[in-house]
Amino acid sequence: MDGEGSLVTQSASLPEPLLKELCDLVGAHHVSVDPHELEWAAMDFTGGYRLGRTGQRARRPLAVVRPGDVEDVRQLVVWAARHRIPLVPRGGGTGVMGSAVPQLPAVVVDLTRLDDIVVHPDDMLAEAGAGATLAAVDAALRRHGLALAHDPWSVGIATVGGAIGTDGVGYLAGRWGSMGQQVVAIEAVLPDGQVVRTRPVPKPPAGPDLRALFAGSQGTLGIVTRAWIQAIGAPEVMLFRSYRFRGFEPGFEAVRALWRAGVIPDLLDFTDDYPAAVELPPGYEDDLGRTGLLHLGFFGAAEEARGRLAAADRIVKRFDARDLGEEPAREFWERRHEIAEQFALPILQARDARRRWQQGAFDYINLALPASQVIPYRREALARIAADPRFYAGETGLWGRPEVFSLLVSAAHPAAAQAAGGAAGAGSAGAGGPESTGVGAASADEPGPWAAEWTPEDAAAMEQLMHDLMRMAQARGGNMECLHGTGLKLLPLLQDEFGPALDVIRKIKRALDPLDLMNPGKWGETAGAPASDGGVAPPDGSGGRDGVVVVRGGSGGGSGSVEADRRGDGGRSPGAAGDPVAPRSGREGDPAGEPGARPAGNGDGGATAGSARGRRAADATAAMPGNGRWRTGRAFHPGWFTRA
Q1: Nearest Cα to 270, choosing from 286, 291, 288?
Q2: CB 62 within 8 A of CB 558
Q3: Most C-beta atoms within 10 A of its C-beta, which of 269, 341, 391, 395?
C-alpha cells in the first residue's frame, strides 16, 4: 500500500515452479498471488498503530492458499517442509493482536473453505471445520435445541480455528469458559504431515491433554482442521438486569460477592467510566467523577434462571447498587455484535486494508489478575495514565468474572490536555472527563478525541505506557492478556510474562516443528529482521534463520530465486530474549531511544533505505502512516475492540 496505509510494503514472490506445485496441490482457483490479496492477508484487525515497533516485522505473504479438506492441508504441510517455506494458518482475520500476521515471507493457509458442520444432538456436540464461522455453528445447533457458548463480538465473522488458536473469550465465558475449554476434541495436521485426532469425550485419558496443547498455540504447533465443541441447551428464558454503582470499587466488590456465593451469571459486563460515556445522567459518581454500570444476564430453564437472578439482586444491593431494570442489559445484549456488523464486516467484505490499518489512536488491555489485586492495580494504572497529559483513561471494567480486568487508553482531546490538573470535570487520567471534553458524546461522524495530530513521539509514548501497565499487572501476579492471545503485539513482553516457562514453550515447538515453519516467530524464537533490499533478506542472511527459504524477486507471482539461509544463530537480533529489536535504553523490550526522537523517514512511515541496523534505529519510535503525522476521520466508541 501507499504511505497512507500499511507498513507491510516489502514484497517477495514464489518462483514459478513452486507456484505451479501449489496450484497442482489445491487447484489454481484456490491459490492467489494477487498483490491486493497478499496485502490483506498480511494483517489482521490489530491496526498498525497498535503494533508499535513490532509492526516493522510484518511481511506480505508469498501466496494465499485455500485448502478444501484435511488432505489438502496435509499435502500443503508436506510441500512446505520439502521446500522449507513457512506457513501461517488464518481464519477470519478478526484477531486484534497480530497472531496471524506473517513475520517472514510465508504462505498463508486460509482455512475458510473448511466450513462444514455436523451436529451430534445426542452427544451435545458440534463437529465443525476450522473455517466455519461461530455464527454458523450456533445456527446449526439452534435447529436441534442447542446453542454455542462461545459468543465473542466477532461471532459472525470469526472462525472455529481462529478462536481455538487464540483460546478466545466471549460474552458467556464467565459461566462456560474460553473457547479452548469448550473444545472436546480436535483434528490437526502436525508439522511433519501427520494427522492427529483426539477422541470426542469430555475427559481425556491419563497423560497430557492434546486439546489444551493446541488451544492458544496461535497455529505454531500445527494446523487445526476440525474441532468437536461442547454445546449447551438453548435457553428457555433470558433474564436481564442492570445496576449502577458509585464508581468501580463497590461494583467490583458486588461482583466478587456473586462469585463467592456461587451465583454465576451467563452474561457479566461491568464498566466504569464518566456518566456521559455510559449514557447515564450525572449524580451517582465516586470522587473521580466516574460511575459503574453492571449488566447481568441469566439464561436457562425458567426456575433456575429466576433463582440465580433473585440471589444476584439480593447480593448486589448490599453494595448500594441502584436497580436500573432489565432494559439497559437487554439492549446491551442485543447490540453486542454491532462493532462487527457495522465496522469490521464492511471492511472484510471490501477487503479494505487501509481502513483496517487506520482505526484510531487508542489502545487497551485485557488481563487477568488475582481478585485481591484488581482494585490496587486499577488505582496504580490510573495514576500512571494521569502522569502523562497526552493520554486519557477511558473505561475500566470486568468481563465475565472478577479477575478479568480491562482498561482503555486513548489520546487526550486537546482541550482535555489543557484542562489537566484541576479543571472542572477532570477525570482519572488528569486530562478531563467527557463533561469538559465531549469525549463521551462524540457521534459516529464527529472527530474523536484524537482528531489532533498524532505524532511518532505520541505513538512511542503510548507503547511505553501500555508496556508499563502490563508489567505492573505481571508484578501483581497477573497476566498481560487473557482474551486474544499474545500475537505479534506482545512479543517484547513474552520473557516478562512467561519467565523460564517461555523456554519450555519453545522446546515444545522445536520438538514438533524442528524446521520452525508453523507461524514462526510468535514465541520470540525468530528475529525476522527487516530486509535491507525491500525483499525478504539481505544476501548475507541477516534477518534470516536456520533452514528458512529466502525468496527474492519482483512483485506478483513471477520469477524469483530460492536459497536456504544456514545461519547458525537462527538470525536472532541482539537483545533480550523475546524482544524483536535490541533496546538501546530503558527496560528490556521497551521502545528504544529518546521520547522526542523522530525516526528517519521517507514519507511513508518506513525507514530510509540502508542497512538493517539503520532500520532498527529508525524504528525506535513506531512508524506512522502518511508523512509521519496522522489524522483519523472516525470517532472513537468506547466499546471498540475492548471485548474479545
Answers
A1: 291
A2: no
A3: 391
- Give burial (CB, 10 Å; 0-12/13-18/19+) of 423: middle
Rounded average pLDDT over 534-546: 34
Domain boundaries of the chain, sorted by first residue: 117-233, 237-334
Rounded to 5, what percent of the chain is helix, strand, coil?
35, 20, 50
DSSP code string of 50-95: HHGGGGGG----SEEE---SHHHHHHHHHHHHHHT--EEEESSS--
Alpha-helical segments (H) within 84-133: none
pLDDT digits (tens, 9 = 90+) for 550-573: 333 333 333 333 333 323 333 333
The dihedral built from the CA positions of residue 311, 312, 314 and 315, taken in this order, carries a sign that is positive
Q: How far is CA 123 from CA 127, 187, 232, in A?
A: 11, 18, 11
Task: Give the CA distances from residue 396 to residues 106, 278, 414, in Å, rounded to whole numbers and listed in that order.
Answer: 38, 12, 22
C-alpha cell at 568: 547458525
Q: Supply 617's cell numbers.
A: 534505529
C-alpha cell at 239: 433474564
* Spacing of C-alpha 133 from chain mean position: 17
Residue 124 — φ and ψ, nearest 5°?
Answer: 55, 50
User: Topology of 237-334 in CATH?
Assistant: Alpha-Beta Plaits (3.30.70)
Q: Report the predicted TM-score, pTM, of the whole model to 2 decimal places.
A: 0.78
Residue owning grid cell 487508553: 409
Residue 74 confidence (pLDDT): 98
Q: At what angle do helices 456-475 and 374-386 cross, to 10 degrees?
A: 160
| Residue carrying C-alpha cell 457521534 | 443
Distance CA 172, CA 176 (A): 6
Maximum mean pLDDT: which of 52-56, 427-431, 589-593: 52-56
Query: CA-CA distance, 402 to 461, in Å (whole number)?
Result: 30
Sheet containing 362-368: order of strands: 322-325, 237-245, 291-300, 267-273, 391-399, 401-411, 362-368
Q: Contact, 623 vs 599, CB < 8 A?
A: yes
The CATH code of the domain at 117-233 is 3.30.465.10
Greater pLDDT, 593 or 159: 159
More confident residue, 362 or 629: 362
